């Protein structure tokens, strides 16, 4: 009886694997189409034709877009926001979470309650815009960094993770003469490296994909992020202003290949980082969970 049941389970498992494999393969086709269009030689490109593989390979679209001031400015802006924003996110989130784990900290209950309330209530777009305006951050990179130094979900998860660290380790450090800063730097931070790696990736992806806030806070086209520039290229179908007006290269490179190349270039950094931090995903998902 058990043999028949195991066979049914095996058949069911293989059916699930096959279905999930087909879904995974089908999800690759849009990505392959984008890459194929971007790598198609401008002279061989035919509009509205489906390309699974380019008829003739060329990096002309990438060479063109990487030479345009608009794309380079957007890349510089997004890189600055991602690097600086991620560093500040990690610093603020982990230091504040550590303070919230200490019951003797004055005002701990008030600050913890204020953090939890933001999980259920949000001020909205207009109050946030007024806040950024009154802080004098409009049309500045800091408008995309300063208002989002941390968030309630990250604080609560990191706080729960730190509370799972054995307090005896902190007590032994204090006996050896460490103050609270020493305990945090020498004990908590080294033990929190899996959490730091996971949240570094989460914050970096969040900043790299910044779109809506950049759209409403940044009006200077020279400070646009990559996502806003790509929206201009793809959604509004306007690639004419990405390079120098009237350049001969722009006349020879189709706008569609320029759009697809810009999408690929925007995805590459995240695709490059994910494999190196993938081993931390499982730990990141289970951070703060109850362990038996």
UniProtKB/TrEMBL annotation:
Membrane topology designation: Multi-pass membrane protein
InterPro entries xref list: MetI-like (IPR000515), MetI-like_sf (IPR035906)
Main localization (coarse): membrane
Domain ABC transmembrane type-1: 75-276
Intracellular or extracellular location(s): Cell membrane
Keywords carried by this UniProt record: Cell membrane, Membrane, Transmembrane, Transmembrane helix, Transport
N-terminal signal peptide: none
Top-rank taxon, per record: Bacteria
Gene3D superfamilies (alphabetical): MetI-like
Keyword check for Cytoplasm: no
Residue stretches spanning the membrane: 17-39, 79-98, 110-132, 144-162, 183-205, 258-277
CDD domains: TM_PBP2
Family to which this protein belongs: Belongs to the binding-protein-dependent transport system permease family.
Protein name: Carbohydrate ABC transporter permease
Species of provenance: Paenibacillus agricola
